[in-house]
Write a structure and sequence with these properties.
Length: 331
């Protein structure tokens, strides 16, 4: 990593350590200045575009002016007053931003009281995002646009065919049917519910908490206009998966949902949309992973994980769709 003091007012002895796993879209580094002062450097992957980062940082700047009960990552301007810098990362030019370090740890999905607090935080965030102005900015594509998830996968069905003999024919046919059904149903849902700005990736890894208090929400890179219930579907897909099919997943799902219901009451149409939107989230991640595999950025095992996940979630929803909607109506 090159000398960052050329871009930000940081002491020369700043300690830099990598955060997170290798292989993700972006790289994160913790910059420790002292025992009480730290920052996070986010180096975007090659997929990032200035227009998209401009949108994300505008959203964050506006959210920081609101009285949220948790922190979001506020960008720190460079010495030149810009929101980002162009860094040399292993011989490649990469866009990067600097933000304050937010204390906390990723929530424990098995901690039901914590899950309820995170559900409440999501609803609070959605109310705030509704008041964010993105006029004149280029937003990321909505989840509905599966053809825009990854530039190397112009169509989800073509994406499956790109896997060739790695994907058994029977499995490919089943997944194709699921994707077609999701696309058709999601189009109706988006038309009926309209949209607002949503987080887009409200998963365990993007939340920080201290005991039963949410301290921060991270990664607004996929913040775009979707039905607000899309964020809830993404979160439930994460919180329910840990024990999916065991019967114990309902405790996690309902704890999160009850927390959400403290702030936002879902409409009947939103409740009915939940199963399809959960599958839509699975479809988006699957297409993204296929694109990374085709680009040589991820191994096939990562794709296979999401192929199996989508089949399992579809099977679970076939058995539990009505119960999910009935429980959601009680939140």
């Amino acid at each position: 990593m090159q000398n960052l003091t050329a871009y930000w007012d940081l002491p020369a002895q700043t300690e830099i350590t990598r955060i997170g796993q290798v292989g993700t879209n972006n790289k994160l580094y913790r910059l420790t200045v002292s025992d009480t002062q730290s920052y996070v450097l986010r180096v975007y992957g090659q997929h990032a575009k200035p227009q998209g980062i401009q949108h994300e940082l505008s959203v964050l700047t506006q959210l920081n002016r609101m009285a949220l009960p948790f922190a979001v990552t506020a960008p720190i301007p460079t010495r030149r007053g810009e929101w980002w810098a162009l860094l040399n990362d292993n011989g490649r030019s990469r866009l990067a931003i600097l933000v304050p370090f937010i204390t906390g740890a990723n929530p424990e999905i098995g901690n039901l009281a914590q899950s309820m607090a995170v559900g409440e935080a999501l609803a609070q965030l959605l109310l705030a995002l509704k008041n964010v102005d993105t006029a004149g900015l280029k937003s990321p594509p909505a989840y509905l646009h599966l053809d825009a998830v990854h530039p190397l996968v112009p169509d989800p069905l073509i994406g499956l065919s790109m896997l060739g003999g790695l994907l058994a024919k029977q499995k490919q046919e089943r997944l194709s049917l699921i994707l077609l059904q999701v696309q058709t149903q999601a189009q109706r849902i988006y038309k009926a519910l309209g949209g607002q700005l949503t987080h887009g990736d409200f998963i365990h890894a993007n939340i920080l908490a201290d005991a039963e208090r949410v301290t921060g929400v991270l990664d607004f890179e996929f913040c775009a206009r979707n039905p607000r219930v899309l964020d809830l579907a993404v979160a439930l897909d994460t919180w329910g998966w840990v024990e999916m099919g065991s019967g114990r997943e309902w405790a996690h799902i309902n704890a999160f949902g009850r927390g959400f219901g403290r702030v936002i009451s879902l409409t009947t149409a939103e409740i009915e949309a939940l199963p399809t939107l959960i599958l839509l989230r699975e479809a988006v991640v699957l297409i993204h992973m296929i694109g990374r595999f085709v680009a040589g950025a991820s191994p096939y095992i990562d794709v296979e994980q999401w192929l199996d996940s989508m089949l399992q979630i579809d099977a679970w929803l076939t058995l539990n769709r009505q119960r999910l909607m009935d429980d959601a109506g009680k939140w």
